[in-house]
Design brief:
The chain is an alpha+beta fold. It folds into three domains: 90 residues, Uridine Diphospho-n-acetylenolpyruvylglucosamine Reductase, domain 2, CATH 3.30.43.10; 111 residues, Uridine Diphospho-n-acetylenolpyruvylglucosamine Reductase, domain 3 (2-Layer Sandwich), CATH 3.30.465; 199 residues, 3-Layer(aba) Sandwich (Vanillyl-alcohol Oxidase, Chain A, domain 3). It contains 14 helices and 18 strands. The strands form four sheets. The protein has a seven-stranded antiparallel beta sheet. The protein has a five-stranded antiparallel beta sheet with strand order 5-6-10-8-9. It has a four-stranded mixed beta sheet with strand order 1-2-4-3. Helix 7 crosses helix 14.
């Protein structure tokens, strides 16, 4: 538990109460308990104060107040970091959940969103125009956190990572000043933001490139766990030669009688007949007991993942990068599925390829631009259970993957003890990223994953 300075809290209250009024929450306030909760019920962090900001000026005031008072600072938007770093114990939370505006410009093919906007908010603004951008798979995830660290998702092959579609960002820096980062404004901060995430400031506004995509061919194929090895092996061969238009997820999901192997294709190309043939090839890898693939709007396709988050459950996540889904990696995942400790736990493999893999590694802070797989080992269990055996299961799966894993890992999925692995993710870009951190936040006011300054 972080020791909270009473004088520091009083300093923040004096600075922010006149501006925020009842939107500055202290632990005894009625709304505090709900404001500090995030989707992962295992997170019990108790901040000292929560500042529910409504505009950039209020964000800047909150940053200055925390810095002047010497209080730790964290930023909450979507709140989907599994480790709960959005609600820092004993600190001031800059809460952006009231900043969810989103407006599309169909002529310019751009969308501008506020810092607390979610994927669902962004897509709701773009969808009436038949437009989308690259996103993750869960609609309630905050856009800022996703797109400033990476943004793997179903359109990565065709349109790149979410950060590859970011055109500019408004940022409140550690001194409380506000800058606009982009190709024509503060290009070094612009470079660092696209991969370095929340280490440099509070992102209060973002502008993205949009793409015409009225519909996708997408859905879920579920196979008995006994067919898992064949499904994973066949998947590896198919995605190795897949066109940009086809991105596929695989792994194991909960089923009524235990884990089930799955394939989740997203075809984003205009040639739907070619997409149907690609899905047929995936279907033929086993005998699916659930076959729900069809043509639908992109936002509707993402809703199939909404049920994956069970309110009140506890979650713990481990992750590894793999060059490919080799036989050894497939064996580790099949064995992990057989040893599940909870009916809620999952194993998910995301593909990185196509347009995202053709970006110069030095163009953004995100450096791993070769085709690869991202493995998510997600342990989930009811609140009344204890964590130990579920943690041991997750750790055993990634230990089995380690002999074939790449250095580094996707920082958005790594935990508080993974700073070294997260730094390794930046490869040859790390020194430049560290220099940017020393330039924009030398006192480490913003300490995200990876912790760029000790």
């Amino acid at each position: 538990m972080t020791i909270v300075s009473a004088s520091g809290v009083d300093t923040v209250v004096r600075a922010l109460r006149p501006r925020l009024g009842e939107r500055l929450l202290l632990p005894d306030d009625a709304g505090f308990g709900g404001a500090r909760r995030v989707w992962n019920a295992a997170v019990t962090h108790r901040p000292a104060l929560i500042a529910r900001c409504r505009d950039t000026a209020e964000v800047a005031a909150a940053v200055r107040a925390a810095r002047d008072a010497g209080l730790p600072l964290s930023v909450r938007a979507g709140g989907h970091d599994w480790a709960g770093r959005a609600v820092r114990d004993g600190g001031l939370v800059v809460d952006l959940t009231g900043l969810r505006g989103a407006a599309a410009d169909p002529v310019a093919r751009t969308v501008t969103v506020e810092g607390g906007a979610t994927t669902a908010d962004l897509l709701a603004a773009a969808a009436p125009h038949g437009l989308v951008t690259a996103t993750g798979v869960v609609g309630s995830v905050g856009v800022a956190g996703l797109s400033t660290v990476g943004g793997y998702g179903p359109l990565v092959g065709r349109f790149g990572l979410a950060l590859d579609n970011l055109l500019g960002a408004e940022v409140v820096l550690a001194d409380g000043s506000t800058v606009t980062a982009g190709p024509d404004g503060d290009p070094e901060l612009w470079w660092a933001l696209r991969g370095g995430g929340g280490n440099f400031g509070v992102v209060t506004r973002l502008r993205f490139r949009l793409h015409e995509l009225p519909a996708v061919l997408a859905g879920m194929l579920l196979f008995p766990a006994a067919q898992g090895r064949a499904v994973l092996s066949g998947y590896a061969g198919i995605v190795a030669a897949a066109p940009d238009d086809l991105t596929v997820m695989t792994g194991f999901l909960p089923g009524p009688d235990g884990p089930m192997a799955f394939l989740c294709p997203f075809w984003s190309g205009a040639d739907l007949a070619a997409g149907a043939r690609a899905v047929d090839a995936l279907r033929a890898l086993g005998r699916p007991v659930v076959d729900q693939v069809g043509t639908m709007p992109y936002a509707a396709a993402l809703r199939m993942f909404d049920a994956s988050i069970v309110d009140g459950n506890h979650y713990l996540l481990r992750s590894r990068w793999l060059a490919d889904l080799s036989p050894a990696a497939a064996d580790a995942l099949v064995a992990g599925a057989a040893e599940l400790t909870s009916p809620f736990s999952t194993l998910i493999v995301n593909r990185f390829h196509g347009a995202a893999a053709r970006v110069d590694p030095a163009a953004t802070a995100f450096a791993n631009r070769v085709p690869h797989q991202v493995v998510e080992v997600i342990a989930a269990w009811p609140a009344q259970d204890t964590a130990e055996r579920h943690r041991a299961w997750a750790d055993s799966v990634v230990a089995a993957l380690d002999p074939v894993a790449l250095p580094g890992g996707y920082p958005n999925l790594l935990g508080p003890g993974d700073d070294t692995r997260a730094r390794d993710a930046y490869g040859g870009n790390l020194d430049r990223l560290l220099a940017a951190k020393r330039r924009y936040d030398p006192d480490n006011v913003f300490s995200a994953i990876p912790a760029l300054l000790d």
